[in-house]
Amino acid sequence: MRKRLDADATREAILTAALESFSERGYGATSISQVASRAKVTKSLVLYHFESKETLWQTTLEAHVRPMVQLFLKYANGDPSLSFRDVIRTRFDFMKASPHLSRLMTWLTLESAPLPIPIDQIAPRVFARAKAELHDSGEPELVAALALGAVDSWFRYRLLLERMAQIPAGDSSLDDQYLDLVLKLVPEVKR
């Protein structure tokens, strides 16, 4: 006899399976059937909870980037307690704590997977505020893009860099050193 899960547990099992599948294979190469198999549910049950692969992808991303999106939203809305350096530092810490997120972000750059709606709407406002905040840096858009890209790249390529540079694996002091270097790109703002 099959064990029945409650709706919340089923939804959570599907989201966990989707996170693992999308992280490993990307949006394009992941099917609803693969997610269902990994979650040990039927394809129709996945579609009952999420209606389409795009909805499942967006829900998976939103569930895992929500704290970062909330930070970006506060920054975009002009929260005076936040600087772009705070955004960089928090994004770094968030990526460090969420290895799947780095892989999902990599897939976003490699294929034309749909962006979660809040990110699509907030990103231009984040860059507009960063541009205003970093105006003395010469090329504020490039500084902002370089700093965000450097954070993402660290987590995307860290294992490869450890092997190539023969750095001891898992040396967390490297994370701190790298973040310090990235923050040197972003001028401090007087509040």
Automatic annotation (TrEMBL):
Pfam families: TetR_N
Residue span, HTH tetR-type domain: 8-68
Single Gene Ontology MF annotation: DNA binding
One GO term (biological process): regulation of DNA-templated transcription
Keyword set, alphabetical order: DNA-binding
InterPro entries: Homeodomain-like_sf (IPR009057), HTH-type_TetR-like_transc_reg (IPR050109), HTH_TetR (IPR001647)
DNA-binding region location: 31-50
Gene3D superfamilies for the chain: Tetracycline Repressor, domain 2 (1.10.357.10)
SUPFAM superfamilies with a match to the protein in the record: Homeodomain-like
Entries under PANTHER family matching the protein: HTH-TYPE TRANSCRIPTIONAL REPRESSOR SCO4008, TRANSCRIPTIONAL REPRESSOR
Entry protein name: TetR family transcriptional regulator
Higher taxonomy: Bacteria, Bacillati, Armatimonadota, Fimbriimonadia, Fimbriimonadales
